[in-house]
Amino acid sequence: MAGGAVGADDFGGLFRDRFGESYRGENEYDREETLHNTYLANIVSTKQRLISLDAFRGATIAAMMLVNNLGSHTGAYAPLLHAEWHGLTPTDLIFPFFLWMVGVAMTFSFARRVEEGGDKGALIRHTVRRSALIFGLGLLLAGFPNYDLTTIRIPGVLQRIAVCYLIGALVFLYTTWKGQAAVIVGVCTAYWMLMTLYPVPGFGPGVLEPIGNFSQYIDWMVLPGHLYKAARVWDPEGIVSTLPAIATVLFGALAGHLLRSKRELVEKCAWLLATGVLLAVAGYGLGLAMPINKKIWTVSFAVVTAGLAQLGLGAFYWFIDGQGWKRWATPLVHYGSNAIVVYALSGLVARLWNLSGWRQPVYEAVFVPLGSPAFASMCFGLAHVLGLYLVAWFLYRKEWIIRL
Fold it and tell me: Is 42 among the domain residues?
């Protein structure tokens, strides 16, 4: 059953049994192309770089490595664990923060490439190539070391980054901020309607539980046998939940427009913080109708985490780029300068650790005696983060910024 397709009519019974355009002239297109390239070039100032963005990204990657590499999830501190289903914990903020920063960074990198003479076609080729590399890296990590193509997990964290980056970049390259805001509304509305109105066979519409929701139904129908092993029949980085994740990237792009504008730093901070509060409040309000849920990336989750990400970067921007408090953030900048590479290496190290057979003995001999199970588990994760910092520091020291 895991490797075969499941008929729609059998869906509900199976889980109850097993798991309870018109033509326009060429000149008009040329004018639109010129105007949009001018728009892209005008949203930047040459060689501008936000240390705060690197630091915020670094803090996010460090946190991601920590929660992914706890000594044991049994008895771990609750803030270091994902919400079981509905709800929000600090750990649930990590991945949306990173995706949001993908959108912010996009406004910087694409506009810089326009300044350097790159045209839209070159930017699209670059985007497709980079997305393919990131997606492929995700598959390599998912299949390591056996690469069984019949069961390899196809969705994943890096795969979602790749897809959201690709779609978000195409939207960014072909629209202004107003168009990007419209796409956010569009994808969120489409997701909401699918999740609440489509009658899942055997369950009906509007189910938002682990089994029977529209997102889980599509994952199981399209990718049976290639899903997150711990869940088996759905994936937290699945197909339908990618829609609001794209909105997360575009929320970041809107914040990037603000940061690239010619406003004074104080004004930018004020706008970041004010709109961050509004988004967070709106997200919690939406949560009354559709619960905040990371595992299916609900609209309320996308909106509230975008707001909280703006508040976080707004604070980093004020203190680091505004007040010049940069020294304390240096280790975070080291992580953030090669974020994808460090994250991928972290996953590889963790898998090698498990394959070696030494992980559990080392954990029990070195970390368990340090204190409570929660403290020992956190210390093991921190040791992993600190070990990867040496790699991040070395790459930064050598000025090796690896761009996939």
Answer: no
